[in-house]
Amino acid sequence: MNHPMEVCRQAETKIRELQQTLLDPRVETLDLCRLELVRIAATLDSLTASSPSLWEPGLLTTLQQIRRDARELGRRIEYGASFCRGWIQLSFGTGYTQEGLPVFAAAEAMASFEA
């Protein structure tokens, strides 16, 4: 594994890139961002599993900031996914079930995804 601060810098850079990517919330970009966020979390989990006594000063503060940024990124991914679901519902929805779930006109919705 790389030096802990280098790992943090790479995570910060990747999060900023993903934030820019989410300015265009398409299904493909949401999936990409979600996968990248999982990778970042796994990398940071392995980093934090190491002994904190070996950490340099400032690493904990950096990790806390990355955690806040990653949470915000996760929220933006969820907002984007909600936007896409809402758009599909507006475009192809026929109403809602008694449980409040959307009902789609199946033939039209499937045809749009096959294009």
Task: Describe the protein's architecture and organization.
This protein has 115 residues and is mainly α. It has one domain. It has 4 helices and 2 strands; from the N terminus they run H-H-H-E-E-H. Strands 1-2 form a two-stranded antiparallel ribbon. The longest helix is centred in the middle third of the chain and has 34 residues, at 59-92. The N and C termini lie far apart (43 Å).
List keywords for this structure.
115 residues; mainly alpha; two-stranded antiparallel ribbon; 4 helices; 2 strands; 72% helix; 6% strand; elongated
Architecture blueprint of SSEs:
Blueprint: H1 4-21, H2 27-48, H3 59-92, E1 93-96, E2 102-104, H4 106-114
Helix pairs in contact: 1-2, 1-3, 2-3
State the gist of this model.
This protein is mainly alpha-helical and 115 residues long.
Query: Helices and strands, in N-to-C order?
Result: HHHEEH
The rough form would be described as elongated
- Model regions low in confidence, pLDDT < 50 over at least 5 residues: none
Q: Give me the Rg, rounded.
A: 19 Å
